[in-house]
Amino acid sequence: MSVPAIPHDPYAALRGRNFRLFIVMRLCMTVAIQMQAVVVGWQLYKITNDPLALGLVGLVEAVPSIGIMLFAGHLADIYPRRAIIWRTIVLFLVSSLALASTSLAFYPQWAAQWGLAATWPIYFAVFATGLARGFLGPANFALMSQLVDRAHFANAATWNSTVWQAGMVGGPALAGLVYGWLGIQTAYGLQCLLVVAGLAACLAIAPQPAPAAPPPGESIWGRLAEGLRFVFGHQVMLAALSLDLFAVLFGGATALLPIFAKDILLVGPQGLGLLRSAPAVGSVVMMLYLAYRPVKRNAGRVLLWAVGGFGLATIGFALSQNFWLSLLMLLLTGITDSVSAVLRATLMQLLTPETMKGRVSAVNGIFISSSNEIGAFESGVAARLLGPVGSVLFGGAMSLVVVGVTAWRAVQLRRWQIK
Protein backbone atom coordinates (compact mmCIF):
# COMPACT_ATOMS: atom_id res chain seq x y z
CA MET A 1 0.00 0.00 0.00
CA SER A 2 1.46 3.35 -1.03
CA VAL A 3 1.99 6.12 1.53
CA PRO A 4 0.24 9.37 0.59
CA ALA A 5 2.64 12.19 -0.21
CA ILE A 6 2.92 15.01 2.33
CA PRO A 7 1.58 18.24 0.76
CA HIS A 8 4.20 20.87 0.05
CA ASP A 9 3.89 23.86 2.41
CA PRO A 10 5.22 26.98 0.64
CA TYR A 11 5.15 28.95 3.92
CA ALA A 12 6.83 26.37 6.18
CA ALA A 13 9.88 28.47 7.08
CA LEU A 14 7.82 31.65 7.59
CA ARG A 15 5.78 30.07 10.37
CA GLY A 16 8.63 30.61 12.82
CA ARG A 17 8.83 34.02 14.57
CA ASN A 18 12.62 34.19 14.55
CA PHE A 19 12.81 33.48 10.83
CA ARG A 20 10.21 36.18 10.14
CA LEU A 21 12.30 38.71 12.10
CA PHE A 22 15.37 37.54 10.19
CA ILE A 23 13.51 38.17 6.92
CA VAL A 24 12.51 41.68 8.04
CA MET A 25 16.13 42.42 8.90
CA ARG A 26 17.28 41.10 5.51
CA LEU A 27 14.71 43.23 3.70
CA CYS A 28 15.60 46.45 5.52
CA MET A 29 19.33 45.94 5.05
CA THR A 30 19.03 44.95 1.39
CA VAL A 31 16.88 47.98 0.56
CA ALA A 32 19.37 50.21 2.40
CA ILE A 33 22.39 48.72 0.61
CA GLN A 34 20.74 49.03 -2.79
CA MET A 35 19.65 52.60 -2.11
CA GLN A 36 23.24 53.43 -1.24
CA ALA A 37 24.52 51.85 -4.46
CA VAL A 38 22.17 53.91 -6.63
CA VAL A 39 22.71 57.21 -4.81
CA VAL A 40 26.51 56.82 -4.63
CA GLY A 41 26.68 55.79 -8.29
CA TRP A 42 24.68 58.79 -9.47
CA GLN A 43 26.52 61.14 -7.10
CA LEU A 44 29.96 60.01 -8.30
CA TYR A 45 29.07 60.04 -11.99
CA LYS A 46 27.63 63.53 -11.56
CA ILE A 47 30.87 64.68 -9.92
CA THR A 48 33.34 62.94 -12.27
CA ASN A 49 31.41 62.12 -15.49
CA ASP A 50 33.80 59.14 -15.71
CA PRO A 51 32.63 55.50 -16.11
CA LEU A 52 35.80 54.30 -14.39
CA ALA A 53 34.64 56.04 -11.20
CA LEU A 54 31.64 53.70 -11.17
CA GLY A 55 33.90 50.69 -11.57
CA LEU A 56 36.12 51.91 -8.73
CA VAL A 57 33.12 51.90 -6.38
CA GLY A 58 32.84 48.15 -6.90
CA LEU A 59 36.55 47.60 -6.40
CA VAL A 60 36.75 49.76 -3.26
CA GLU A 61 33.83 47.83 -1.75
CA ALA A 62 35.06 44.39 -2.85
CA VAL A 63 38.62 44.64 -1.50
CA PRO A 64 37.73 44.84 2.23
CA SER A 65 34.77 42.50 1.83
CA ILE A 66 36.81 39.75 0.18
CA GLY A 67 39.83 40.40 2.39
CA ILE A 68 37.92 39.92 5.66
CA MET A 69 35.34 37.33 4.61
CA LEU A 70 37.23 34.11 5.41
CA PHE A 71 38.08 35.41 8.88
CA ALA A 72 34.44 36.51 9.29
CA GLY A 73 33.33 32.99 8.36
CA HIS A 74 35.67 31.58 10.99
CA LEU A 75 34.11 33.88 13.61
CA ALA A 76 30.59 32.84 12.53
CA ASP A 77 31.53 29.22 13.25
CA ILE A 78 32.67 29.86 16.83
CA TYR A 79 30.73 32.91 18.12
CA PRO A 80 26.98 33.67 18.39
CA ARG A 81 25.93 34.76 14.93
CA ARG A 82 23.25 37.25 15.96
CA ALA A 83 25.84 39.16 18.01
CA ILE A 84 28.12 39.40 14.98
CA ILE A 85 25.26 40.64 12.81
CA TRP A 86 24.02 43.45 15.04
CA ARG A 87 27.54 44.79 15.58
CA THR A 88 28.09 44.71 11.83
CA ILE A 89 24.87 46.63 11.22
CA VAL A 90 26.12 49.33 13.60
CA LEU A 91 29.27 49.65 11.46
CA PHE A 92 27.12 49.92 8.36
CA LEU A 93 25.06 52.66 10.04
CA VAL A 94 28.23 54.65 10.74
CA SER A 95 29.29 54.42 7.07
CA SER A 96 25.77 55.42 5.98
CA LEU A 97 25.87 58.51 8.17
CA ALA A 98 29.28 59.39 6.74
CA LEU A 99 27.91 59.15 3.20
CA ALA A 100 24.91 61.26 4.18
CA SER A 101 27.29 63.98 5.37
CA THR A 102 28.78 64.24 1.85
CA SER A 103 25.41 65.54 0.63
CA LEU A 104 25.35 68.49 3.03
CA ALA A 105 26.10 72.04 1.92
CA PHE A 106 29.30 72.37 3.96
CA TYR A 107 30.90 69.25 2.46
CA PRO A 108 32.64 70.70 -0.67
CA GLN A 109 34.20 73.53 1.32
CA TRP A 110 35.25 71.14 4.10
CA ALA A 111 36.86 68.73 1.64
CA ALA A 112 38.72 71.55 -0.09
CA GLN A 113 39.90 72.94 3.26
CA TRP A 114 41.53 69.59 4.08
CA GLY A 115 42.97 69.18 0.61
CA LEU A 116 40.73 66.24 -0.26
CA ALA A 117 39.22 65.44 -3.63
CA ALA A 118 35.43 65.47 -3.46
CA THR A 119 35.32 61.71 -4.12
CA TRP A 120 37.82 60.52 -1.48
CA PRO A 121 35.51 60.55 1.60
CA ILE A 122 32.82 58.84 -0.48
CA TYR A 123 35.20 56.02 -1.41
CA PHE A 124 36.34 55.76 2.21
CA ALA A 125 32.73 55.31 3.40
CA VAL A 126 32.13 52.73 0.67
CA PHE A 127 35.25 50.90 1.91
CA ALA A 128 33.69 50.74 5.40
CA THR A 129 30.48 49.42 3.84
CA GLY A 130 32.47 46.65 2.15
CA LEU A 131 34.06 45.76 5.48
CA ALA A 132 30.61 45.49 7.09
CA ARG A 133 29.27 43.34 4.27
CA GLY A 134 32.26 41.03 4.63
CA PHE A 135 31.14 40.15 8.17
CA LEU A 136 27.41 40.26 7.44
CA GLY A 137 27.23 37.63 4.68
CA PRO A 138 28.69 34.57 6.48
CA ALA A 139 26.88 35.36 9.74
CA ASN A 140 23.52 35.78 7.95
CA PHE A 141 23.87 32.46 6.11
CA ALA A 142 24.94 30.58 9.22
CA LEU A 143 22.26 32.12 11.46
CA MET A 144 19.45 31.22 9.04
CA SER A 145 20.12 27.49 9.45
CA GLN A 146 19.65 27.87 13.23
CA LEU A 147 16.19 29.42 12.81
CA VAL A 148 14.50 26.67 10.74
CA ASP A 149 14.36 22.88 10.71
CA ARG A 150 16.61 21.07 8.27
CA ALA A 151 13.54 19.79 6.39
CA HIS A 152 12.69 23.42 5.58
CA PHE A 153 16.15 24.54 4.39
CA ALA A 154 15.12 24.69 0.73
CA ASN A 155 11.97 26.64 1.58
CA ALA A 156 13.93 29.02 3.83
CA ALA A 157 16.54 29.55 1.10
CA THR A 158 13.78 30.38 -1.37
CA TRP A 159 12.12 32.92 0.93
CA ASN A 160 15.45 34.40 1.94
CA SER A 161 16.38 34.87 -1.71
CA THR A 162 12.89 36.21 -2.49
CA VAL A 163 13.09 38.86 0.21
CA TRP A 164 16.63 39.73 -0.85
CA GLN A 165 15.43 40.23 -4.41
CA ALA A 166 12.42 42.21 -3.17
CA GLY A 167 14.93 44.52 -1.53
CA MET A 168 16.76 44.67 -4.83
CA VAL A 169 13.48 45.88 -6.36
CA GLY A 170 12.52 48.33 -3.67
CA GLY A 171 15.96 49.76 -2.99
CA PRO A 172 16.88 51.04 -6.47
CA ALA A 173 13.36 52.17 -7.33
CA LEU A 174 12.99 53.96 -4.01
CA ALA A 175 16.42 55.56 -4.33
CA GLY A 176 15.75 56.78 -7.86
CA LEU A 177 12.36 58.24 -6.99
CA VAL A 178 13.44 59.84 -3.71
CA TYR A 179 16.70 61.19 -5.21
CA GLY A 180 14.89 62.48 -8.31
CA TRP A 181 11.99 64.15 -6.51
CA LEU A 182 13.19 64.93 -2.98
CA GLY A 183 16.97 65.20 -3.34
CA ILE A 184 20.08 63.36 -2.25
CA GLN A 185 19.85 64.33 1.41
CA THR A 186 16.40 62.77 1.78
CA ALA A 187 17.59 59.63 -0.01
CA TYR A 188 20.53 59.19 2.34
CA GLY A 189 18.34 59.97 5.36
CA LEU A 190 15.80 57.30 4.42
CA GLN A 191 18.60 54.81 3.94
CA CYS A 192 19.87 55.46 7.48
CA LEU A 193 16.36 54.92 8.90
CA LEU A 194 16.15 51.55 7.15
CA VAL A 195 19.46 50.50 8.69
CA VAL A 196 18.09 51.40 12.13
CA ALA A 197 14.98 49.29 11.43
CA GLY A 198 17.18 46.37 10.39
CA LEU A 199 19.14 46.69 13.62
CA ALA A 200 15.92 46.63 15.66
CA ALA A 201 14.71 43.47 13.88
CA CYS A 202 18.06 41.77 14.49
CA LEU A 203 18.00 42.55 18.21
CA ALA A 204 14.44 41.14 18.43
CA ILE A 205 15.59 37.68 17.23
CA ALA A 206 15.96 35.28 20.13
CA PRO A 207 19.64 34.68 20.96
CA GLN A 208 20.93 31.46 19.43
CA PRO A 209 23.66 29.25 20.93
CA ALA A 210 27.19 29.60 19.67
CA PRO A 211 28.40 26.76 17.45
CA ALA A 212 30.64 24.09 18.93
CA ALA A 213 34.02 25.34 20.11
CA PRO A 214 36.94 24.42 17.83
CA PRO A 215 39.22 21.55 18.91
CA PRO A 216 41.96 22.66 21.34
CA GLY A 217 45.16 23.67 19.61
CA GLU A 218 43.60 24.12 16.17
CA SER A 219 44.86 27.32 14.56
CA ILE A 220 42.77 29.92 12.77
CA TRP A 221 44.69 29.24 9.57
CA GLY A 222 43.97 25.53 9.86
CA ARG A 223 40.25 26.20 10.21
CA LEU A 224 40.24 28.58 7.25
CA ALA A 225 42.08 26.00 5.17
CA GLU A 226 39.53 23.38 6.19
CA GLY A 227 36.70 25.48 4.78
CA LEU A 228 38.57 26.04 1.52
CA ARG A 229 39.36 22.33 1.18
CA PHE A 230 35.71 21.44 1.69
CA VAL A 231 34.52 23.73 -1.13
CA PHE A 232 37.34 23.01 -3.58
CA GLY A 233 37.06 19.28 -2.94
CA HIS A 234 33.32 19.19 -3.72
CA GLN A 235 32.84 19.20 -7.49
CA VAL A 236 29.13 20.08 -7.51
CA MET A 237 29.53 22.99 -5.10
CA LEU A 238 32.69 24.29 -6.74
CA ALA A 239 31.17 24.10 -10.22
CA ALA A 240 28.02 25.93 -9.12
CA LEU A 241 30.01 28.71 -7.42
CA SER A 242 32.42 29.04 -10.35
CA LEU A 243 29.54 29.23 -12.80
CA ASP A 244 28.07 32.17 -10.93
CA LEU A 245 31.47 33.80 -10.43
CA PHE A 246 32.53 33.96 -14.05
CA ALA A 247 29.10 34.46 -15.61
CA VAL A 248 28.29 37.49 -13.44
CA LEU A 249 31.91 38.72 -13.43
CA PHE A 250 31.73 39.19 -17.20
CA GLY A 251 27.98 39.42 -17.76
CA GLY A 252 26.79 41.97 -15.22
CA ALA A 253 25.68 45.36 -16.58
CA THR A 254 24.59 46.88 -13.27
CA ALA A 255 27.65 49.09 -12.73
CA LEU A 256 27.14 50.79 -16.12
CA LEU A 257 23.43 51.51 -15.70
CA PRO A 258 24.04 55.19 -14.79
CA ILE A 259 25.68 55.60 -18.22
CA PHE A 260 22.84 53.87 -20.04
CA ALA A 261 20.26 55.92 -18.10
CA LYS A 262 22.01 59.27 -18.65
CA ASP A 263 23.64 59.01 -22.08
CA ILE A 264 21.92 56.23 -24.07
CA LEU A 265 18.32 55.86 -22.88
CA LEU A 266 18.07 59.47 -21.60
CA VAL A 267 15.81 58.67 -18.62
CA GLY A 268 17.57 60.40 -15.69
CA PRO A 269 17.78 59.21 -12.07
CA GLN A 270 14.12 58.10 -12.01
CA GLY A 271 14.76 55.82 -14.99
CA LEU A 272 17.98 54.62 -13.38
CA GLY A 273 16.03 53.48 -10.34
CA LEU A 274 13.67 51.49 -12.57
CA LEU A 275 16.54 49.97 -14.53
CA ARG A 276 18.29 48.94 -11.32
CA SER A 277 15.11 47.38 -9.94
CA ALA A 278 14.04 45.53 -13.11
CA PRO A 279 16.29 42.46 -12.55
CA ALA A 280 14.99 42.13 -9.02
CA VAL A 281 11.35 42.37 -10.17
CA GLY A 282 11.97 39.37 -12.40
CA SER A 283 13.73 37.60 -9.56
CA VAL A 284 10.89 38.13 -7.09
CA VAL A 285 8.31 36.81 -9.56
CA MET A 286 10.38 33.71 -10.30
CA MET A 287 11.23 33.07 -6.65
CA LEU A 288 7.58 33.26 -5.61
CA TYR A 289 6.91 30.67 -8.30
CA LEU A 290 9.76 28.52 -6.97
CA ALA A 291 8.31 28.70 -3.45
CA TYR A 292 5.27 26.85 -4.80
CA ARG A 293 7.03 24.78 -7.46
CA PRO A 294 10.57 24.10 -6.23
CA VAL A 295 13.10 22.59 -8.64
CA LYS A 296 14.04 19.03 -7.71
CA ARG A 297 14.55 16.97 -10.85
CA ASN A 298 17.47 17.81 -13.14
CA ALA A 299 18.49 20.69 -10.86
CA GLY A 300 22.00 20.84 -12.35
CA ARG A 301 20.74 21.11 -15.91
CA VAL A 302 18.20 23.76 -14.91
CA LEU A 303 21.03 25.74 -13.32
CA LEU A 304 23.08 25.63 -16.53
CA TRP A 305 20.14 26.69 -18.71
CA ALA A 306 19.35 29.54 -16.32
CA VAL A 307 22.85 31.01 -16.49
CA GLY A 308 22.83 30.65 -20.28
CA GLY A 309 19.57 32.62 -20.40
CA PHE A 310 21.19 35.29 -18.24
CA GLY A 311 23.93 35.74 -20.85
CA LEU A 312 21.44 35.99 -23.73
CA ALA A 313 19.33 38.57 -21.90
CA THR A 314 22.47 40.61 -21.16
CA ILE A 315 23.29 40.70 -24.86
CA GLY A 316 19.73 41.80 -25.59
CA PHE A 317 20.05 44.68 -23.12
CA ALA A 318 23.31 45.84 -24.71
CA LEU A 319 21.70 45.99 -28.16
CA SER A 320 18.54 47.79 -27.04
CA GLN A 321 18.09 51.53 -27.46
CA ASN A 322 14.49 51.50 -26.24
CA PHE A 323 13.84 52.04 -22.54
CA TRP A 324 10.98 49.52 -22.29
CA LEU A 325 12.88 46.83 -24.19
CA SER A 326 15.87 47.44 -21.93
CA LEU A 327 13.62 46.99 -18.89
CA LEU A 328 12.35 43.71 -20.35
CA MET A 329 15.87 42.39 -20.94
CA LEU A 330 16.91 43.30 -17.40
CA LEU A 331 13.73 41.64 -16.13
CA LEU A 332 14.81 38.44 -17.91
CA THR A 333 18.27 38.62 -16.35
CA GLY A 334 16.57 38.67 -12.95
CA ILE A 335 14.30 35.73 -13.77
CA THR A 336 17.21 33.56 -14.88
CA ASP A 337 19.57 34.71 -12.13
CA SER A 338 17.01 33.93 -9.43
CA VAL A 339 16.88 30.27 -10.45
CA SER A 340 20.66 30.11 -10.08
CA ALA A 341 20.58 31.88 -6.70
CA VAL A 342 17.95 29.59 -5.17
CA LEU A 343 19.59 26.39 -6.42
CA ARG A 344 23.03 27.50 -5.22
CA ALA A 345 21.73 28.48 -1.76
CA THR A 346 19.82 25.20 -1.43
CA LEU A 347 22.88 23.22 -2.45
CA MET A 348 25.05 24.94 0.15
CA GLN A 349 22.55 24.52 2.99
CA LEU A 350 22.02 20.83 2.26
CA LEU A 351 25.63 19.82 1.66
CA THR A 352 27.47 21.89 4.30
CA PRO A 353 27.90 20.63 7.90
CA GLU A 354 26.53 22.99 10.57
CA THR A 355 29.99 23.56 12.10
CA MET A 356 31.38 24.77 8.75
CA LYS A 357 28.55 26.95 7.46
CA GLY A 358 30.24 30.23 8.33
CA ARG A 359 33.45 29.35 6.51
CA VAL A 360 31.73 27.78 3.50
CA SER A 361 29.42 30.80 3.28
CA ALA A 362 32.52 33.00 3.39
CA VAL A 363 33.99 31.18 0.39
CA ASN A 364 30.66 31.60 -1.40
CA GLY A 365 30.66 35.28 -0.42
CA ILE A 366 34.11 35.72 -1.93
CA PHE A 367 32.84 34.23 -5.17
CA ILE A 368 29.77 36.50 -5.13
CA SER A 369 31.75 39.63 -4.20
CA SER A 370 34.27 38.87 -6.90
CA SER A 371 31.53 38.46 -9.49
CA ASN A 372 29.57 41.56 -8.44
CA GLU A 373 32.01 44.18 -7.15
CA ILE A 374 35.10 43.16 -9.15
CA GLY A 375 32.76 42.58 -12.06
CA ALA A 376 31.71 46.21 -11.67
CA PHE A 377 35.36 47.25 -11.93
CA GLU A 378 35.80 45.01 -15.01
CA SER A 379 32.74 46.65 -16.56
CA GLY A 380 34.13 50.13 -15.90
CA VAL A 381 37.50 49.27 -17.48
CA ALA A 382 35.85 47.53 -20.45
CA ALA A 383 33.58 50.55 -20.94
CA ARG A 384 36.66 52.75 -21.15
CA LEU A 385 38.13 50.48 -23.86
CA LEU A 386 35.03 49.27 -25.74
CA GLY A 387 32.35 51.76 -24.79
CA PRO A 388 29.39 50.84 -22.55
CA VAL A 389 27.53 48.89 -25.24
CA GLY A 390 30.63 46.96 -26.31
CA SER A 391 31.44 46.18 -22.69
CA VAL A 392 28.01 44.65 -21.98
CA LEU A 393 28.02 42.74 -25.28
CA PHE A 394 31.42 41.25 -24.46
CA GLY A 395 30.21 40.29 -20.98
CA GLY A 396 27.09 38.53 -22.24
CA ALA A 397 29.09 36.56 -24.79
CA MET A 398 31.62 35.51 -22.14
CA SER A 399 28.77 34.29 -19.91
CA LEU A 400 27.68 31.91 -22.67
CA VAL A 401 31.26 30.65 -23.03
CA VAL A 402 31.43 29.99 -19.28
CA VAL A 403 28.19 27.99 -19.37
CA GLY A 404 29.47 25.89 -22.26
CA VAL A 405 32.76 25.08 -20.55
CA THR A 406 31.05 24.26 -17.23
CA ALA A 407 28.49 21.99 -18.89
CA TRP A 408 31.33 20.15 -20.64
CA ARG A 409 33.65 19.76 -17.67
CA ALA A 410 31.38 19.48 -14.60
CA VAL A 411 29.66 16.13 -15.15
CA GLN A 412 28.45 15.81 -11.54
CA LEU A 413 26.78 19.22 -11.70
CA ARG A 414 24.87 18.18 -14.83
CA ARG A 415 23.58 15.12 -12.96
CA TRP A 416 22.79 16.89 -9.67
CA GLN A 417 19.28 16.28 -8.26
CA ILE A 418 17.66 17.72 -5.12
CA LYS A 419 16.48 14.87 -2.90
Topology, element by element:
Blueprint: H1 17-48, H2 51-76, H3 81-101, H4 107-113, H5 120-147, H6 153-182, H7 184-204, H8 220-232, H9 235-251, H10 257-264, H11 268-292, H12 299-319, H13 323-351, H14 357-409, H15 411-414
Overall description:
The protein is an all-alpha fold and about 425 residues long. About 80% of the residues lie in helices and about 0% in strands. The chain has helices spanning about 15-50, 50-75, 80-100, 105-115, 120-145, 155-180, 185-205, 220-230, 235-250, 255-265, 270-290, 300-320, 325-350, 355-410, 410-415. The longest helix has about 55 residues, at about 355-410. Mean pLDDT is about 80; it is low at about 1-5.
Helical content (DSSP H or I, runs of 4+): over 70%
CATH architecture: Up-down Bundle
The topology string of helices and strands comes to: HHHHHHHHHHHHHHH
The helix tally amounts to: 15
CATH homologous superfamily grouping: MFS general substrate transporter like domains
Describe the biggest sheet? Answer: none
Q: Tell me, rounded to a whole number, the average pLDDT.
A: 78
Provide a concise account of the structure shown.
Helix content is 80%, strand content 0%.
Based on the model shown, name its key terms.
419 residues; mainly alpha; Growth Hormone, Chain: A; 15 helices; 80% helix; globular; disordered N terminus
